[in-house]
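INFO batch 0412 | record 1 of 1 | parsing
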Amino acid sequence: QVQVTESGGGLVQAGGSLRLSCTVSGMRADNTDIGWFRQAPGKEREGISCVSASGSRYYRDSVKGRFTVSRDNAKATFYLQMNSLTSEDSATYYCAATYRICNLEVDRYQYWGQGIVVAVSG
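INFO prediction complete | emitting tokens
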């Protein structure tokens, strides 16, 4: 059974940083592509970044230069470093896993975490 779990969210001031973590069990980490998504109240879920098993990385334009996605296959853990946060980044963030090549589309992913809240004040 595949399980995806996010951690590291919380409240941060504008201009600050947070690092989200995503652990995946039940899948071979080195064969798994990971996507990060977010959903603000009243808005659709949007893809913001993904990292492929081969290490390729993709970003939504609005987070390029501020967010960095990475992976540690040995720990089966994936990260999203978020810097220079603004109120526009406030949302519930989701980690998702797929055996397919990652992209920023919701329907590419088979396994999802429960989501974690990121709130940016100021």
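INFO post-check: The chain has a mean pLDDT of 96.
INFO record closed
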